[in-house]
């Protein structure tokens, strides 16, 4: 060590920690400031100066921008290095809000005059999307606020959110003289609605309930009174009994899927699609989920394969095995043995009926198998409507049509197999 360095070292060693020194040209050491504060550089730690909070990184630099830390926590430091608190920050099309502790908010946030917004687990504000909290559904609009009131969307669809921002389901909403009803999926009802003890009401294409006016449905005319219920014109105090209904189940072709023996699966998928279930399946992929009975017993599963005709095997599946299969996708009930009115009641409740009949409604051809007797010319269709004299059929082999109730029931009564879906 040279003489100068030694001198400085000796001189400085006598100073208090934190002293600021100036070395003169004659190598003398002069103390110009001294205190007891430790002036070591901050690294990986916070520093508060009044109401401003800073964070210094591993290089000792005060950070700017987003900083993730802990268990999915996030904070933000502006260009002045000060932490954001109780304010927004936008990063491109992402919006964050940092609360009073400096952390980015997640979950629901109430603010202002009954306003509500939501931030996902990534701390980004929801916009133009839904959020479900248990059995409560919210929708956040283009400005990030939860919607209240009526919301039109899609192809003439309508939903309603109350003052608490929660979507209405299975309940009415009155807007002046207009009455709406929102169903189990949250959409405002259009068309005829059966409810209560054989009561009936009607909602127009604008979703508003009819009152004191007529509605014509094909050959059937209804009159809706001052309370919105359909009434009998001859007996004004007696509710009218709806004599027709068609659910509108969409046709699925078993032949187009290469499944000449796939009427059970096709009819089932038709009904499921109507209920909004299994919509990610086409017929070919849906059949792959069907239970198969290796012993060929249709009470236990499908015998053989639906994709080709195999002689000597009874290629079908009966309600005892089909119902649990359907229940993997939707609620369903084995209503085998039911009568004409039972089928009508199911459709009236919005539940299509998968029904076992004979192909082209011809006389049954019976044969004996190791599991019992079966109808060799059996066929399966979906019943989705009725009127005074007919059933409306969605047939995976022959398309969509009306068939007289007499013809249908004569064919159905051979086996009396049926499954109500929904």
From TrEMBL:
Protein name: Peptidase C39-like domain-containing protein
Taxonomic source organism: Pediococcus argentinicus
UniProt-listed InterPro entries: Peptidase_C39-like
One matching Pfam family: Peptidase_C39_2
Domain Peptidase C39-like residues, every copy: 247-396
